[in-house]
Amino acid sequence: MLLVALAAMFLAATPLFPSARHVLSDLSLTTEKDALTLTIAASGAPRQTKHFSLTDPIRLVVDIAPAVLPGAPRSIPANHALVERVRAAQFDAQTVRVVFDLKQPVSHRLDIRQPVDDSAGRSLVFTLTAENGGTAQAESPATGQAGPAPAADSTAHNEKIVLLGESPATGSTVHNEKIVLLGESPVTERTRPDASGWGEASLSGFLMAKVAQELDEEKSPGQPRMFRNTVRVEGKWVPAGFSGGENAKTNAEAAYLLGSVQSDYLSFGPDPASDEYDLDLFEAYLFRSTPDWDLRLGRQIVRWGKTDQISPVDNVNSQDMREYLIPDLEDRKLPNWMARLRAFIGKTTLEAVFIPFFEPNEFDYTGNTWALLGTEPVGLRVEESEPEGLDNADWGMRASLSQGGWDVAASYLRATEKTPHLDLDPFDPAGPTLHANYRRQNIFGAEFETTAGSFGFRGEAAYVDLQSFPTESLDSVSKSMVHTVLGVDYLGQNDWYANIQLSHQHIFGYETDILFLSRDNVFLNGEVNREFLRGNAKLKLRYAVDLTNGGAFLTPEAILTSVRDLELSLGTNLFFGPEDTLFGRYRDDSQVFLRATRFF
Length: 600
What we know:
Elements: H1 2-11, E1 22-31, E2 35-42, E3 48-54, E4 59-65, E5 67-68, E6 74-77, E7 83-92, E8 95-102, E9 106-113, E10 122-130, E11 157-162, E12 175-179, E13 200-214, E14 225-238, E15 254-269, E16 274-289, E17 293-300, H2 329-332, E18 336-345, E19 348-355, E20 381-385, E21 394-403, E22 406-416, E23 421-425, E24 433-437, E25 440-452, E26 455-469, E27 477-491, E28 496-507, E29 520-532, E30 537-546, E31 552-560, E32 566-576, E33 591-599
Parallel strand pairs: 1-5, 11-12, 20-24
Antiparallel strand pairs: 1-2, 1-11, 2-10, 3-4, 4-8, 6-7, 7-8, 9-10, 13-14, 13-33, 14-15, 15-16, 16-17, 17-18, 18-19, 19-21, 21-22, 22-25, 23-24, 25-26, 26-27, 27-28, 28-29, 29-30, 30-31, 31-32, 32-33
C-alpha cells in the first residue's frame, strides 16, 4: 500500500480526469424581420452543445457543457414573430440550459466563432429562422394570432442581457436596449450610476454529501466506508460604475471582489476511524480589467493547458489528494495566493503569474486507505520541510495566439514541486525518519487546440528538468522527463459523446527501482456518455488504462438532474490489474458511491 501511494502522489501531477467549465459571460439577442440571433460569449469552446424540441408549448432547448452561468437564471423578452422570450439557467453542475420559448416552428443553426478582439474566448451564435425557409408571421394585436409580418425596419433591433453587470463590445446596430440586472442602469459601462450607490452583490454556492462503500469489505484493510460533506458559499460584489465580468476585451472596464468560504468534513472508518474537518477561506480575490489588460490578485485557481483530462502543462495550483485520484480534477484543485496579469495585444494574450507562498498538495501521511504511508502506523517519524521566503516563490509566463481556427500557447513555470522528495534515514537517533522536502523545478510547456466539424483536437507537451520519483527503498530520485498528450473528442448523433486521449511520458536517466513506472509510460484516458430523458439523466463512463504495465481504473456513473438545482449520482470506482501495478494494487478497494449536490 505504501509503495503504491507514493507512486500515486507523483502521478497526481498529471490528473486523469475531467475538464474545467467555461464561463458564459453575456447573452446578446439581435432581431431582424425574418430571423433572430442569440450570441453567447464564452471563455472557451464548449465540449458539447445539444438541442431538442418540446411541445405544449413549443420550445427549443439547447444544453451547453461544460459551462457555468454566474448568478441567477436569466430571461430576455424577444418580442419577435418567432420567439416570445429566451431563458438561460444553470441546469446542473456541468450544463447551462438555454430555452427559446417559440411562437411558431423554427429552423436553427449554431456557429462557434473566434471573436476578433478576444483570443481567449468563443462566441456561440444561434440563428433562428422560420421553419423550411418560410416568413416569420407576426402576431396580430387584435387576436394574438399569427398575422402578416410587419414592414421591415431600416435597422436591426438589438436587445441585450447583462450577466452580473458585464457588457460586450458595442455593436453596429442602431437600436440597443438592455435588460438590466441587480440595479444596473442602461448607460455606458464607464460612467453609469448605481441605484444603490454601493454597487451590485450576488451569493451562490453548493452543498455536497457523498458516501462510499467498498464492494468487498472482507478484503478491505480496515476502512471500507467513507463519508464526505462539503459546503461552499461564494459572494461577489461589483462596485458602482463597473462591469462585473472577466471578458476584459470589451469596451467596458470591469472590477469586482469575490470571496468564498468552504466547510469540508471527511471521514474514513470504521476501524481504524479517522476524520478531518476544515473551515477555510477558499477563493478570495480582486479582479480589475480594461480592454487592454486584466489583473486578478488574491487566492485563486488558474488553469493552463488545453487537454480535458491529463494536462502536463497545468501545474500552477496544488490539489487535494486525500481521496487519491477518485474526485474530478475540478474538485481536486485548490486555490493559491497569487497575482495574475494578462495583456491583450491583437490576437495574442500575454500572461504572467506570481505565487509568493508555497502550498503543497493536500494529503495524509497515515490513517486511511489513500494515505501516503497507508492506513496503519508504520513506525516511521516524518519530518517535513517546506520552503519559505520570496526566493522560493513560484512564477511563470504564458503566451497564447488564436489564428485561423487554431489556439496555440507556450509557457514557462519556475516552481516548487507539489509532492515531496523523500529521503529515508533508518539510523536517525530519534528513530527511523522519513525526511520530506520540496525541490525547485523548471517546466516548459506547449499546447494547441482546434476543431473540425464534430471533432475537437487538443494536445500538450511539457518538459520538466527535475521531477522526484519514489523508489522501492523509499528514497526519491530526481530525473528530467517529457510528457505529451494528444486527444480527440466527438459529439455524435443521438446524444452520444466520446473522448479519447493518449499520453506518453519519457523519463531521462531511468533507474529500474523507480516505483510502478517504466522508462516510457503510455496511458489511455477518456470518457463516453449519453443523455436520456431530454437531458434529465446521463450515463457516463470515465476510464484510465495503463498500456505499459497493465491495469485500469473505471468509473461508470448514472446522473439524475430532473429536480432543479439538484444533482444525484450513483456509480462505482473499479480498479483492475495485477497486484503489483498502479491500479491493480487497489483492486480490493473498489467501491460504490452515492453523491448528492444541491446548488443555490
